[in-house]
Structure formats: C-alpha cells, structure tokens
Amino acid sequence: RKEVEQDPGPFNVPEGATVAFNCTYSNSASQSFFWYRQDCRKEPKLLMSVYSSGNEDGRFTAQLNRASQYISLLIRDSKLSDSATYLCVVNTNAGKSTFGDGTTLTVKP
Amino acid sequence: NAGVTQTPKFQVLKTGQSMTLQCAQDMNHNSMYWYRQDPGMGLRLIYYSASEGTTDKGEVPNGYNVSRLNKREFSLRLESAAPSQTSVYFCASSESRTAQPQHFGDGTRLSIL
Questions:
Q1: Contact criterion met (CB < 8 Å) for B101 and A34
Q2: Largest Cα span, chain A
Q3: Distance from C-alpha of A10 to C-alpha of A15, rounded to nearest angstrom
Q4: With a CB-CB cutoff of 8 Å, which residues 82-101 of chain B face chain A?
Q5: What is the pLDDT of residues A26-61, one digit of tens each?
Q6: CA-CA distance, A35 to A20, in Å (whole number)?
C-alpha cells in the first residue's frame, strides 16, 4: 500500500462546478499536510497548506481529518485555469515529505 | 530572483554514459532535494541535503550520486545511465528539512536510449 494515495481521476467538470479531491495517508506520525498544483510539463507549486481546523483561500478549501487519516481539497466555481494535476504532500516531524501521485482535473467550457 | 535553476533542461543519453545535473538556488535555503517524476506518478525523492555539508538517501537513490558543493548548489550525477532512469528530474529547496514550501526548478527531461 502506498503511504499517500490519491484518486488519479481524471475529473472532468464544467466551468462553475464544485469539485472535491481526497488524499489518504497511512503514517499516523504525519504532522503537516499540503496541496501542490502541477501544470502539464511544469514544476509543482504550493497551492495551500492544510490546517487541523480547515482553511480557505478564495475558492479553495482544505480539510484535514486526522482520525480517518485523509485530507481534502474543495474547489468552488471552477475556472478553466484550474485545470491541472493536484498533488497532496504529507510530512512527518522528521521532515520526510511523501507526494501522492496526483489527481488530474480538467475544467471544460 | 531566479529561485531554483536547473541545467540542462533537456538531455538525451546513451546507455552507459554519465552526466551531471546541476541545480542552484538563490534563496539562501538550507535544504535541497532531487526528485524524479515518471509519467502519471508523483515525485519520488532520490537524495536530499538537509544542510550544507550533509547528504542523505531518499526513496530511490540507486544509480545516483549527489554533491552539495556549497549552500547554493546541489548536483546529481548518473555514473552509468540506464533506460530505467528516463524521467523528469526536479531539484527543490526549502528553508529547512521540515519547512514548506519547497521551491522547485523547471525540471530536466532526461531520455536514455
């Protein structure tokens, strides 16, 4: 079993839709959590951190469920420019970062 | 600021050839990393350097060596390239091993024939 698992998708949604991705992790010692965005043939870039209480940044909301060991990313009012691959990253206290394989989102007109 | 700069951006090698991928960061970060990303997969850590003067193996170190030349530069060497090493290689840096975000370079697309 992979340490960090994501549904690869693809998720194909119309503009304006709400879409949610989940990411599960197996290491209960994981301490910090992040979502990165990666455009086709580009480098990953940090989208947002995930805090225990949940956090929001504009149309994006991230949630953490420690009991069930998953994090989620919700995108509201999807834009064409949201089309990308979304990677979840899980860190341990020792600084080990594990990347998920990513979920591909395509937003269509 | 350039951030993280990788060279070259593209390279084609023959099996058995050697080469070094270069990475430099201008953000005064302590930690640097080398990842590989195969099609449809996430990033896998090859080696990292938590601070100048130290290097450690990551998840997939076999077939690679690294050098942390100074605080700015972290190179990755393939001594005898194999087709299984065909991948996109990303260098990244962060303030410390436990700090996010990691800032990534543009990547090196490496094909081994």
A1: yes
A2: 44
A3: 15
A4: 90, 96-98, 100-101
A5: 988 888 899 999 999 899 999 999 988 889 999 999
A6: 13
